[in-house]
Amino acid sequence: MVTVIERALLFIIMLRLISGSIEITAAALMYKFNDLEKAFYINTLLALVGPVILIVTTGIALLGLADKISLTRMVCLFAGIFLILFSLKSE
């Protein structure tokens, strides 16, 4: 039996694999450089990757589920993501 994967799900899986590969590569670079300043710089760059992947994968999922989820629910989900990101940046 052949399992068909939805296109949106395939994109989410690929993005998560890329994101995980970036994280592992960053850890390997931190180990290779063995320098706290460089590790801090690499970690700062990773802080940009995570939220971008979160927003993009959530957007793809919502587009894939657009016919099954109401507009109000979509707005609430994006508002929740915004609040999470906003709380990380606030003091």
State the order of secondary-structure elements, H for helix, E for strand.
HHH
- Give the number of helices: 3
Question: What does the largest sheet look like?
Answer: none
Q: Please, what is the average pLDDT?
A: 89
Q: Name the shape in a single word.
A: flat
Helicity, as a percent range: over 70%
- Share of β-strand residues: under 5%
Outline of the structure:
It comes from Filibacter tadaridae. It holds the Pfam family DUF2619. This protein is an all-alpha fold and 91 residues long.
Describe the structure.
This protein is mainly alpha-helical and 91 residues long. The protein has one domain. The protein is built from 3 helices and no strands. It is flat, with a radius of gyration of 17 Å. The mean pLDDT is 89. This is DUF2619 domain-containing protein.
Tell me the layout of helices and strands.
Blueprint: H1 7-33, H2 36-64, H3 71-89
Helix pairs in contact: 1-2, 2-3
What tags apply to this protein structure?
mainly alpha, Uncharacterised_YqhV, DUF2619 domain-containing protein
